[in-house]
Structure formats: structure tokens, C-alpha cells
């Protein structure tokens, strides 16, 4: 994939991985559409970048989603890359007093349903471009769940499966759209704030992504994700216990 001269939508762009990807693409002569629910922070960050606009959106709200889709179709019809990065995560234990169904609903809608909605809504637009791509951000937990983040892990596994299915479905449709799956390890982002474990920086993830994107590496195992993946291939049980010591 080319890394300049694109029009790129990035969700979850106010902070973390989404923001760092926006910074790198902005430096390479791309038009950036930054979307997030944290509109005040989003506007501040977008104002620092070249050729970037900020759009407020709550991905779990159907009206907001429809407005975003219509705005893109009307004002950014040259869109050729959609990086669907927004995520929600809650720390709780299954089968305990900590379990909260609302947490699970929020994660399922943000991490999975919103991405399915956006890819289907934007696919006709991207299909008209000579070079186009969807990118979803999943996780190494798509291979092995973390018991402290059970629904988050499940949504990332579902989104990874959706990426695999989408890749083949688009190919059989004769589409030129490429479907990338960015799989970072634990990263220093607002979602991981307070976790006492080794982390990679969001800037490192963004740099790794750009390099892999340019090389057309459709499944991008960043850092320790590759180690977990290889362990999972050898022994799913060992990988499960490594993630849940």
C-alpha cells in the first residue's frame, strides 16, 4: 500500500495508537479524518497536524454512526483507507460480583459491531478506488483470552475472525480492497492505564504498522504478539497459561 496521497479515516484518533498513526500519516502528505467521542481532545490534536479534520462520533450510537457515514460520503468521497481503531475495555472477573452486563454490551458494540457496520457502509465507496484498504485493530488476545479482560478478549477474537472472513469475501467478490489486521501487544494507551505489566508505546505500534502496511503484510503481529502467536501454534494450553499466570 502507498503511504502518501491517501484520504484516511481513523477512529479512536484522539489518543493512543489512533493518534500516533494519524501523526505519521499526516507527515506523509495524506488527508486525515480523525474521529472520536472525546471531541475536545480530538480538536486539540487535529489542530496540531497538517491536513487533518476532527469529527465527533459515539460509535455505539446509531444516529452518530449514520451522521459519520453520510459526512464521509458527502464531503470525503475520495476516502480510500479506513483505519477502525476505536476500542473499549473493562477489567472484571467472570462469575463474580464484578461482572456487569453493561460493560460487555459496551465492548461488543464498540469493538465489534461498530467495525462491521462501518466496513459494510464504506465498502461501496472504497471499492471504486484503485488502491484501498480497511484496517482493524485487534490484539494478541484474539489468539488467547485474558481472564481479567474477558469480553475485550472475546471481541478481539471475533474481530480477527471477521477480518479473515472479510479478506476472502472481498477476494471472491473481485474487490481490490485489502483488509489489514493490526495486532498490538499491551500498549501504553488510556485503555491500559494503571496496568502493572510491560508495555510497548503507541508510537512504536504506529511505526511498526506503517512499515508493515507499506509491505502489504495483512496480519500484523506487533512485538510480543508474535511470541504469543507462535506459542499458541505449538501449545494453546501453554499460551493460555502464559497470558493468565
TrEMBL record:
Example GO molecular function: oxidoreductase activity
Protein name: SDR family NAD(P)-dependent oxidoreductase
Entry annotated with the keyword Oxidoreductase: yes
Similarity comment text for this entry: Belongs to the short-chain dehydrogenases/reductases (SDR) family.
Coiled-coil residues: 32-59
Keywords: Coiled coil, Oxidoreductase
